[in-house]
């Protein structure tokens, strides 16, 4: 299925709410991604996503709608050569290879535009689909932290997957 990554804009508000207001997505996100997902949440997110120049948080557009999102978040201090990636996709588009391709495009974008050597993502231990797409996109499991996340009244394992800049002289784990 065809998709494209592009900056968010206020015209995306209705489709953002349509796809983001889904408990099946929110269960694997930080509490900053609420459920229910209201117009106010959407407006706040779009304001945040459009606050960086150049943009580092993109809509995943499918069939002319913002059907998901993906972002790269550079770290600071001693972690400044690292960036965290976060992503989500509307449930009607799951299992079609879109998010794997979006991750691959975002990795290429990040290594081309940011002074980083490593990109990491932190899926929940129970989010097998996210683990699979990261592995398909070339990420490797670096750490498994037991019961470090607290979501919906339960402790969850946190996994840390990462990919390194091609040709990096940084030691592999």
From TrEMBL:
Keywords associated with the record: Transferase
InterPro entries with a match to the protein in the record: Acyl_CoA_acyltransferase, GNAT_dom
Molecular function terms from GO: acyltransferase activity, transferring groups other than amino-acyl groups
Pfam families assigned: Acetyltransf_3
Record-annotated N-acetyltransferase domain positions: 3-166
Coiled-coil residues: none
Name by which UniProt lists this protein: N-acetyltransferase
Organism: Adhaeribacter aerolatus
Lineage of the organism: Bacteria, Pseudomonadati, Bacteroidota, Cytophagia, Cytophagales
